[in-house]
Amino acid sequence: MKIRTLFLILCLIAAACSGAAAGPDPITRPEPASVPDSSTTTTLPATTTTSVRATTTTVDPGPPAPLTGVRGSVSDQRVLIAKLSNAPKGRPQAGINEADVVMEVLVEGGIGRWLAVFQTSYPETLGPVRSLREVDPKLAAPFDARFLSSGGQWSIRRELGKVAVDEGDGRIPGYRRELGREYVYSLMYDTENLPELDWDGSVEPVLEFDISPPAGGEAATEIDVRMSSRNDLSWAFDHGRYFRTQDGEESVDADGLQVSADSVVVVSVRTINTGRVDAAGSPVPDYEVTGTGAAIIFRDGLAFEGEWTRETEDDFFTFSDINRNDITLPPGRTWIHLTPLSGTVTWS
């Protein structure tokens, strides 16, 4: 089993970088014989050779979808981002298995929340929706997106501007409370109510995809990601996909399907002290998400150690190995864990 602290990986990277179709065979068929007349004699002709060649028709599936790289699934929808709870009482989440990209970030108390990014398709319902944190506008910056949330600091909501569809405004249709959930974790959003907003843009790709994995990589079909003592989870690679487990149980969505992804990425980020605390006195964290840091990319049952780079907030994460060669992702859904330096990752 490989065990890595993300800070150690970053140090190793920094040290290393400082040094450095023919067709088938002819088919022979006899010509059909004539039926002889009673008064004539007919001699059967000699055999003739007919050459048959196979033909192949190629159907172009179309261009790759911008956020998944999957061909034939292109949509002209605007990006939609939802801030979702991953507290135990917030599970199961609705719509998460339709997200193109998910970014998992810790909030106060070491609890995880998800920024679920949708463009290929919108789920009918999303939730439970939770409040904003300082890191959210920074992570949303590369996307021309609508943003679903439930309150948060006014300065953060103002930074998102008119793209925010915030329940805290009290005027937004689509939000509702779902019976059977605890009140704090019951706020859902029905996307058929998403308000119109003038938009004549297009969605730009933010990740680099390749169906073939890079050279190298270590076998990694079992992954444990410890983001905090209260957000400790695992992924298992099976039949070409990664399936999530947390707190000893399969992570399932509101439809009972296990949460899955085509690739899993763990990025190491430094924690920023906001000076704020929650009602329980726990510090509210922010994170440095520009610059560089250690990264581990899991794809095709393999682990690739390297680093992430993000020059500005308008850029998204790119990944490279110790020699600065790009580490691409397989076409499909990507899950990114933004893990503090104290986090650990193990795989086998």
Identify the CATH homologous superfamily of the domain at 209-266 and 287-347.
YerB-like
CATH fold group of the domain at 209-266 and 287-347: YerB-like fold
Order of helices and strands: EHEEEEEEHEHEEEEEEEEEEEEEEEE
Average pLDDT reading: 86
Radius of gyration, in angstroms, nearest whole number: 27 Å
Secondary-structure class: mainly beta
Query: Biggest β-sheet: count, sense, barrel?
Result: 12 strands, mixed
- Tell me what the CATH architecture of the domain at 209-266 and 287-347 is: 3-Layer(bba) Sandwich
Structure description:
There is one protein chain. The protein has 348 residues and is mainly β. Among the domains are: 79-193, YerB-like fold (3-Layer(bba) Sandwich); 209-266 and 287-347, YerB-like (YerB-like fold, 3-Layer(bba) Sandwich). Helix content is 7%, strand content 36%. The chain is built from three helices and 24 strands. It has helices at 6-18, 135-140, 154-160, and strands at residues 2-5, 27-29, 48-50, 79-85, 101-106, 112-118, 125-126, 145-149, 164-166, 175-177, 187-190, 218-219, 222-228, 231-238, 241-246, 249-250, 260-261, 263-277, 283-288, 291-299, 302-310, 318-320, 334-340, 344-347. Strand 13 (222-228) and strand 14 (231-238) form a beta hairpin. It is globular.
